[in-house]
Amino acid sequence: MVGGVRLEGQGDLPQKGPLVSLVAEVKSKSQFREFLELPNQVYRADSPYCPPLDVHLKMMLGSLKQPEKHLLVAYQNALPVARMGIKRHRHGDYDALHFGFYESMEVGPEPTKALMEEARSRYPDLPLRGPYQFRMEDPFTGLLVEGFESEPQFFLSYNQPYYDEYIQATGMKGAMDLYTYEFTPDRVNLDRLAPQHEQAVEQGFQIRNLSMPKIAQEAKHMAEIFNDALSDNWGFEVLEKDQINDLITLGFLFLDPRLVFFAVKDGRQVGCAIILPNFNPIIKSAGGKAVGPTFLWNFLRGRRRIDSFRCYAIGVRKEFRKSPVSSMLAHAVGQALKTIPWKVLEMSWILANNRAMNLMAIGLGGRRAKTYRVYEMDPLTSKT
Question: Domain residues for 94?
């Protein structure tokens, strides 16, 4: 075990207060099990929290033998009370340490401080950023800081309100907020985009849906579009081979071809919009366990009754930003929703500094519902 010094506490249960935590890196199966099971100690069954699907969680965590990636657990009184994963990310001139998979029991900020100190001691010349799992473009980005009263949408995180206090106690500062907007049938106003849709048609743009039999090729189209469309956004990292393969795998499970749209001109894919059904109620009822025929039956039966959806992404290649393509895609979403019984559509997430997208969400009838926050901390030392 590394990092920190353990002080003797009273009794066998974790305690609030100035106990200094002992931090261990996950190396054994028993430690990995402690890492995975900690959220069960943090959240009550009636909490809005929804566990990630176990197979997806293990996909995101990846191999424990991968270099420059570490899973850490903090202990008090020999009991696991907090956890965190860290991974170094390098692409182009970017070089930073990302943290994610953070959870903590309500025992005060000391275990969180110990985790952060251990992370920084291993990579003292790198800035620390997150929570990411492990990339900004991966699901479950950011820490929820506003909107605790409602359940999260699919692939969005939920955490205890005290997490913000614990993270800030380590010296981390907010770097960027991510907003979500909620639409309901009585408030949405996507029909106002009909003139832009007609204009796009006149300019030679067309809309088509996802072809599931060609999901591998379609995933590459998505990656090409979003890599171009989002390349100037704060924190964006290029979608590469591993992420494309994940998208293919998750596509078979979670994408509804009726709710994925490509904008096409002259045979070229120039824009994409992805609407995700909210599978969280199904996943939560199974405790996050994708095991056995019962889960498969409930999954297949339950997906037909989903009435909550998430606008996961809309992207248009840079050269077409001044065209009506983005409005055409949003109009296509509105037309599709007319054929599906729905109660809530959430647009999430939008960077706080993306003025155009925030104004569009409000103009189309969206109500800001949740705020997620990404934090950062400067390096301990300078690179030599």
Answer: 24-177
* Res 7 pLDDT > 70: no
pLDDT in tens, 113-132: 999 999 999 999 999 999 99
The amino acid at residue 300 is: L
Same domain for 206 and 157 = no
Phi, psi of 300 (to 5 degrees): -65, -40
Per DSSP, 320 falls in state G
371 pLDDT above the threshold of 70: yes
Name which of 197, 143, 204, 201 is nearest 173 in CA terms. Answer: 143
Compute the Cα dihedral for 164, 166, 169, 175 and give only its sign: negative
Q: 240 or 3: whose pLDDT is higher? A: 240
Query: What is the pTM (predicted TM-score) of this model?
Result: 0.91
Are residues 241 and 96 part of one domain?
A: no
Mean pLDDT within 58-85: 93
- What is the token pair recorded at 101? 């998979």
Q: Burial level of 151, CB count in 10 A (0-12/13-18/19+)?
A: middle
pLDDT > 90: percent of the chain: 76
- Which stretches of the chain are DSSP H helices? 29-42, 54-61, 110-122, 163-169, 194-202, 215-229, 241-254, 280-285, 292-302, 325-337, 355-363
> Which CATH number characterizes residue 209's domain?
3.40.630.30
Q: How many CA atoms lie within 13 A of 197 on its CB side?
A: 14
Same domain assignment for residues 330 and 259: yes
Q: Is the dihedral of CA 239, 245, 247, 248 positive or negative?
A: positive
Q: Distance between CA atoms of 171 and 167, rounded to whole angstroms?
A: 7
pLDDT at 288: 93
Residue 11 has pLDDT above 70, yes or no: no
